[in-house]
Amino acid sequence: MSFQTIIYEVDGPIARVSLNRPKQLNAYSVQMRDDLYEVLGALKDDDSIRAVIFRGAGDKAFCAGADLTEFLSAPSPVIARQVRWERDVWGRFLNLDKPLIAALQGYVLGSGIEISLCCDIRIASEDARFGLPEVGLGIIPAAGGTQTLPRAIGPARAMDVLLSARWLDAKEALKYRLVNRVIPKSNLYLEAEVLAHRIAALDPALVKAAKKAVDRGMDLPLAAGLELETRLASGL
Ligand code: COA
Questions:
Q1: pLDDT 10s digits, 129-149
Q2: Which of 42, 99, 126, 159, by CA, is between 20 and 30 Å from 169?
Q3: The listed CATH number (3.30.70.260, 3.30.70.1130, 3.40.50.1100, 3.90.226.10) that belongs to domain 6-199
Q4: Is the pLDDT score of 183 beyond 80?
Q5: 58: left (phi over 0), alpha (psi -120 to 50) or beta
Q6: How much distance in Å is there from the Cα of 63 to the middle of ligand 1?
C-alpha cells in the first residue's frame, strides 16, 4: 500500500509506519490525517501483524505538530466536525488491539505527542524535544492530548506541560514518565525493532489480552478492573 505522506511497510510480523514529510518536519497535514486513517484500518485488518513501530522520516523530527500552513483553514466548523467524525483517526488508534511502539526523535510537538500517546510504549532518542504548543497558538489540543497526557503522566505534570506550552527535553520527558526510555539516537530504530520482535515472538492472544486489560482497566474503578482481568484471564 502506498500513501503520499506515510511510508507503510509490513515485514513479517512487524509493521512500520513512518510519517513522511521530512522537509516539513513531518507536520501533520490533512493528507497525513487521511493517510493515517487508511493505515490504521490496514493495521487493524492484518492479522499477521503482531507489533507496530511508528517513527518519523528524516533525522530532525518525529512530527512538528499540525501543519501550520493549513492551520484553522477548514472551510467551516460544520464541515470540520463532519470530517473528524468520518475520519476518526484517534478513535481508530485507541481501538487497535496490536502493540504500538513510538520511536521518537527530534521535534515531538502537538499532534506528534498526541500520536505517541496513542502508542503503548514510547522510546526516545537523546535529541527528542516534546511540547504541546497549542495554548500558545490560540487553541487547545484536539487530538486527544488533554485526555491522554494526564492518563500517561498524571494530571499535575500534564497541567505543567499543557498550560505553560513549555517544552521538555528527553531527560525531563523520562523523569515525567512521558517516555519509557531514552537512548542514543544511532540506536533508536534498532532498539524499537528489537522490542517489536520480542513482542511479536509472544502469543498474540496473550499480548492482546494484556493490552486490553491495561487500556480498559485504566478507565474503570479498581474493583471493576479486577473483574475485567479475571474475565480476560479465564477467557484465554
Ligand atoms: N507546519 C508546517 N510546516 C512546518 C511545521 C509545521 N508545524 N514545522 C516546521 N515546518 C517547516 C518550516 O516551515 C520549514 O519549512 P521551509 O524549509 O520551507 O521554511 C521546515 O519545516 C523546517 O523548519 P524550521 O523552522 O526551518 O526548522 P527549525 O529546526 O529551525 O525549527 C521548529 C523547528 C519545530 C522549532 C519550528 O519549525 C516550529 O516552531 N514549528 C512549528 C511548531 C508548531 O507550533 N506546531 C504546531 C503545533 S499545534
A1: 999 999 999 999 999 999 999
A2: 99
A3: 3.90.226.10
A4: yes
A5: left
A6: 10
